[in-house]
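Supplementary Note 3. Input sequence used for the single-chain structure prediction.
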Amino acid sequence: MNHKKLLIRIFLFTFILCSTSSTTFASPPIDPSRPNIGKAEDLQIIRDIIDNLDKKTLVVFDVDDTLIRKKKEQGYPSISNGADLIHDTTPQLIRDLQEKEVKVIALTHNLSEKETMNWLDSTQGEIMPFYQFRFRQLAQEKIGIDFSGAFPNIEHTYLSISTAFSTCFHISRHPCFYKGIIFTNTISKGIVLSAFLDQFGSNLNLIIFIDDQLPQNIAVAKSLEKMGYTANNPERRYFCLHYIAAQH
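The predicted structure, written as discrete structure tokens, is reproduced below.
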């Protein structure tokens, strides 16, 4: 790392590791009203604190332009040839987190189902729901990312969101969770992550969210704050990372 990048990292991210049970993130905010949103071109910030994370930590990755970059294809999509990693060290980072018993999942803005088209893996000739296609796309050997161990007792379920929200926006289909991946069904990631935490996250005390889109980071931050997550509450802390590697 050159001197300029080192200075930028020092300026943007300072970690105060108070104890094995408390990790505080402090950085100059992107948005002054959201001090818990940082910005980075790599994920070293996560690796630097991995020893202070445990089974009460949830790390949530966006998929497109955070984990993978989709290729432009003609005809039906292909599991084996449809995407490349944004950074080739990310799968190992995820495995290292999983070895620490950190719960690691993905949260994508995709539809939970796509009735308007058949998802055919052009290499296998197999038609499948989109959520299965996305899981297999990430889990294939070329990508090597498998989130299914985070909540092994939950393979596929639909998430309940508030009746008032569903009625207001005429939403009849719910987001779903499939083998460690949440599909928001185009609903705000903040709302859907909150719904997931309400149902399955009662024992978590630290949420780390990583997304290439700043508006999604802000939406998640707002929702987590409504749930009582803050920068300093040892029982409910959060940090969002605006991850911009795909922009370079």
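The two ends are 16 Å apart (CA to CA). Residues 29-247 form a domain with the Rossmann fold fold (CATH 3.40.50.1000).
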